[in-house]
Amino acid sequence: MSTAPARAAAPAALPTRLGRLGGLDAADLAALARAQHDTRRSPARREMIAEGAALRERRAIVSGWAFRQRILSDGSRQIISVLLPGDLVGVCRHDNPVAPTSVVALTDVVTCPAPVATPGSGLDRAYALSAAIDEFHLTAQVTRLGRLNAIGRVADWLLETHDRLRLAGLGGEETFPMPLTQEMLADALGLTSVHVNRTLQAMRRDELIHARSGVMTFPNRARLEDMVDYRPVRVTSNNLMSA
Amino acid sequence: MSTAPARAAAPAALPTRLGRLGGLDAADLAALARAQHDTRRSPARREMIAEGAALRERRAIVSGWAFRQRILSDGSRQIISVLLPGDLVGVCRHDNPVAPTSVVALTDVVTCPAPVATPGSGLDRAYALSAAIDEFHLTAQVTRLGRLNAIGRVADWLLETHDRLRLAGLGGEETFPMPLTQEMLADALGLTSVHVNRTLQAMRRDELIHARSGVMTFPNRARLEDMVDYRPVRVTSNNLMSA
DNA sequence: CGCGTTCTTGACTGCTTTCAAAGATGGTGG
DNA sequence: CCACCATCTTTGAAAGCAGTCAAGAACGCG
Description:
By secondary structure, chain A is an alpha+beta fold. The first copy, chain A, has seven helices and 13 strands. Chain A has helices spanning about 15-20, 25-35, 120-145, 150-165, 180-190, 195-205, 220-230; strands at about 40, 45-50, 60-65, 65-70, 75-85, 90, 100-105, 110-115, 175, 210, 215, 235, 240. Chain A has a four-stranded antiparallel sheet. The longest helix of chain A is centred in the middle third of the chain and has 26 residues, at about 120-145. The first copy, chain A, is globular and about 50 Å long. Chain A starts with 12 loop residues before the first helix and ends with a strand. Chains A and B meet through strand 5, helix 3, helix 5 and strand 13 of A and strand 5, helix 3, helix 5 and strand 13 of B. The structure holds a DNA duplex.
């Protein structure tokens, strides 16, 4: 793990992910391609959306990582969720006008407007499924924090993040970028950075992970999975199940 | 706290809550009244929606408490969120066909179909705001589990639940029904029932709460609030902010 | 090459869990 | 009306996981 910004993600992350979620036709793909000409960049650490700010439009992440966070009065921070390339951000179902959490760029982030979807189109289905997946991940985060110990939280989160990256066509079978510092991981998993450090060391000792300079590797993903009873999200075109 | 089912909630909980969220006109109120003739009852402990089950329709809770939960392979359970009278359940934004968690009745629960809202109507706004509030509470739950200790989690959750009940016109200034057992509270807050018991005892000793047979009382709500830096959700007709 | 950030390490504290068992409590049937 | 039962609450002692504090090493950047 390091502070190195994630390599420029394949610009295809957005159409790849949405295509797998909804099945995009030529019109949808053209709309996405058009939207990706109207990009906005946020340097790492920049706050992209302030908590309570009005949400003007739904946007999509073209490349880079970001996260939603909340700061408590004692200065501690909880990272609610991590946003990856291909994810939608600020999606207001109808006209929810206010962001419940602030969004901060973790690496340099490129976003574009999320094109308006024709009702019934593949893009429309993709948006709906993406929202459902987001909610699923939020409930998974609750379960992780409420019921898993440190090693379980780390392992479960890494597995989920690996799957999410692969859905967007990023990362390999057993390798993927991991630009979070140990302190960020701690803030996401409800731990301290010291304990995250010790937990990662234990996982390295047990040959569960290899981590170096922003790249994470699973030497044996299956072993990790049944260590934490990991339930991947199955995405089936326009359906979703946690088998 | 006890096992006693919550008293039959005022049947007005649903129109009260949605009215405060969206401002209902005569047509909306009539639609709600009509919907409340088509009720369905779930006895306490009955599973209302299985995890992964297809969501056929959006329903509303007329009376009673329920909760969304997830069971882990080791038998432990995490309560994701509690559903109160006036809440909407199984709200699929577009056509998310699958429940990400199971829903279980905590007390005897009465539900009715959530009437279809005319776009732009008060009911439509209420649904949108309700979804936004749900998401806000989910992020609050993540923060609670990730960053607060036992007493903070209990206090924060009690305050939030009190506010939610009052939004639906239930409970008083400093008193409200609390039908959860200590074990359920533990499963919601990521603790053990033994520790919840000790925490509640400490809060009683400090005169922060009075709890007996299903009724909770705050002798001094303000003191509780600044003990945990509680941020209530302000609902302003068709807006929402966490001031 | 120097500096700031991030990662490591050690010792110590303490919150929370675990295990087990003894009281309450409320509802039920006799 | 009372005994009985299941469920829920309470208690104690001991163990463990995670947090705190502090300081040094390593890394990446300019």
